[in-house]
Design goal:
With about 300 residues, the chain is α/β, with parallel strands linked by helices. The protein has 8 helices and 13 strands. Strands 2-1-3-12-4-13 form a 6-stranded mixed beta sheet, with helices on both faces. It has a 5-stranded mixed beta sheet with strand order 9-6-10-5-11. The protein has a two-stranded antiparallel ribbon with strand order 7-8. Strand 1, helix 2 and strand 2 form a beta-alpha-beta unit. The longest helix is centred in the first third of the chain and has 28 residues. The N and C termini lie far apart (about 55 Å).
Length: about 300
Amino acid sequence: MSSAQEPSADRSTRGFEIKKRRPWLWIAAAIVALAAVATGAVFVLGAGDKAGANGDHFGTDLKVAFLSTDGAQEAFLKYVASEIAAQYDIKIEPTGIGDPNQVQAAVSNGEIAATVYAHAPWLAQSDAANGTKVTPTEPVFQWAYSLWSAKYASFDAVPDGAKIAILDDPANTAQALQLLASNDVISLKSQVDPSKATLNDIASNPRHLQFQQIAFGTAARTLNDFDGILSYNFEFVAAGIPLKDKIFAPPAPRIFAAQLGIGTKYVDEASIKRLIKAFADPRIQQYLADTTDPAVRGQLAPVSAK
């Protein structure tokens, strides 16, 4: 990009006329300028103080991002904000963001203090793909992750050779396969890392299920195209799919619990440490087990034991 040309020193050629100012006007202008500088200094110092003691990037008002398409995450964060945060001398502001990549970037670069939008394998996958750095610090809940079908009333009724869709990204492919393996629907090859399992790692498939991968966010609108789709409940609930179409809902593996994700370079800051302690408060797991909030119950569950 070429630089702009410098303006001419002779302003009379551009229709300007330079006139002498009275001395008292210059003095008044100087006083106003000094006052503005002083006010600005106070504002900056105040903002710096609010940003956190000891040079911390964050203060006590902490934005925690959730995926805005998931009302259960929002309801969960509102509970933590209203019932837990104050006892750890912080305030939590639930912040919805629609694009997972934007969530990851905002947390990595410190625009947002934390997020609960993803499990550890997904955070690692996103970091590797996008060059972000987000550290999982505390498992906070399990998403209800189920097999839905518009054609069959139960999983037992699904025929051999049925066409079953799973999400196509590596982390959620692994989650689907681990869920099926832990319930003896399939088995995986020995020594396979459950967080990295692929379709090629299936050792046995007694029901000869035909797995097809689909993109995240397409499950609800493609439900009629398959015999069943294994994905997050919130995708179907948000689209108004009736609960009777949820035909197989075993507990999700702990490795795929949603994590409190923190930008890696901020994990040791004082306010962030208090935030992590707040999300480790045992009342949160009790809330997830007992809540009657329809936005959360059946969508989010306590962290699995294994």
